[in-house]
Amino acid sequence: MSVEIRVPTLGESVTEATVATWFKQPGDTVAVDEMLCELETDKVTVEVPSPAAGTLGDIIAKEGDTVGVDALLATLNAGDSAAAAPAPKAEATPAAAPASSGSSVDVMVPTLGESVTEATVATWFKAVGDTVAQDEMLCELETDKVSVEVPSPAAGVLTEIVAAEGTTVDASAKLAVISSGAGASAAAPAAAAAPAAASTGKDVENAPSATKMMAENGVDASSVTGTGKDGRIMKDDVLKAMAAPKAAPAPAAAPRAPSAPSDAAREERVKMTKLRQTIARRLKESQNTAAMLTTYNEVDMTEVMALRNQYKDEFEKKHGVRLGFMSFFTKACVHALKEVPEVNAEIDGTDVVYKNYVNMGVAAGTPQGLVVPVIRDADAMSFAEIEKAISEKGRRARDGKLSMAEMQGGTFTISNGGVYGSLMSSPILNPPQSGILGMHKIQDRPMAINGQVVIRPMMYLALSYDHRIVDGKGAVTFLVRVKEALEDPRRLLMDL
């Protein structure tokens, strides 16, 4: 049976891609979900997996061809007559170990998500020689966005660790070997293998076609400015760098030496996690790209606190979730975004993309770093639905269980530094978004109300916005509407 391999959905507003690299050739045997080729767009690199096991037939779109969405890339000969997916490779039995009637199962890197091509082995929960059950967690991988747990594909004994802790592996790398079957219990422990050079030597951060071109032409990656997602170097970037005048390479920065020899023993040097590196890079990109400005206001929380105290027990009893402040702020922001839509828009080249929906990002601090899970279609949710979504996303964030899809597609973000005691701050934009609201600590302060000084629970609000798309008037109007809605929550019911 012939199966057509077509261009997958490339993402919002992306209509075409370039075939960068074919990993398979006509006649090659492929397994289900094995990567066939890689496509490059102006934003991301997309890998195309095989929809079935079989043999690759004709390649219709060659490397370098530009193709549209759903275009035919190749054909696949699948079915009973096609070659089956390759069986797991049996590992050599150590000389000291008795022969085993069981089989060896390779533990491979699981699917990491769209555009994620490598991960770092963070922790091994099992050691060589340990008995493992099927689906028992073997190790944890860190990518630049999420942590991924790797379960055991079979019951047996862990006989070999191929990728040690700290090793960077690509999306198709082997992590370990499990001896399963009747002879698994008799398998002798093997020494943990050193990190495989083949798994760590490839620079998979950049587009494969770009990496190939840089290697063939002796181009240093540090001299190329990447225009792809998260600074990824694309093929066109290499061509531009090769055409530019050559500059003398800057010397590599040496590790900072302690200020005094006696300080060395009191310092600890720890490599940044993938997530922390991505946070650092994206925040700096935000500063370098957006014309970021922050405007401030303050809100009297008296009415919101009174309404919450009045209904919180009944709310929790009916909906099974606590009534917090975040649902009020989310509703107030949705209300304000309808009046000032540019705060919910983004710049794409020379276009402004207005979003007629609100995917609310809610910044959450975790032991691994700051993550921003997204509540989709928050503008269509009730208070209870918002609270349930925030509770669930927060729990998954703390447990490191968020998927990449849950952190993509946000149109506006709320950051609550008040839970840590922050009185005032200037939040930084989460690109490509054009606005982020900073919440802060609720503090009793003396306020002049109707000519009298009274004590009120006050909170400072901060809106950071991209001045390229949002004018000062729009930013101030947005913040005033949020303030009005919170100081008189009845306005939300009447859409005022």
What features would you describe in this structure?
With 496 residues, the protein is of the alpha+beta class. It has four domains: 2-78, OB fold (Dihydrolipoamide Acetyltransferase, E2P), CATH 2.40.50; 103-200, RNA polymerase II/Efflux pump adaptor protein, barrel-sandwich hybrid domain (OB fold (Dihydrolipoamide Acetyltransferase, E2P)); 213-241, E3-binding domain (Dihydrolipoamide Transferase, Irregular); 276-493, Chloramphenicol acetyltransferase-like domain (Chloramphenicol Acetyltransferase), CATH 3.30.559. It is 22% helix and 28% strand. It has nine helices and 27 strands. The chain has helices spanning 197-200, 208-217, 235-243, 274-289, 302-319, 326-339, 383-398, 472-487, 490-493; strands at 2-6, 16-22, 29-30, 35-40, 45-49, 54-59, 66-68, 72-78, 103-108, 118-124, 131-132, 137-142, 147-151, 156-161, 168-170, 174-180, 292-300, 346-348, 351-353, 360-362, 364-366, 369-371, 374-375, 412-416, 435-439, 443-449, 452-466. Strands 17, 20, 23, 24, 25, 26 and 27 form a seven-stranded mixed beta sheet that branches. Helix 2 packs parallel to helix 3 and helix 6 (326-339) crosses helix 8 (472-487). The longest helix has 18 residues, at 302-319. The radius of gyration is 27 Å and the shape is globular.
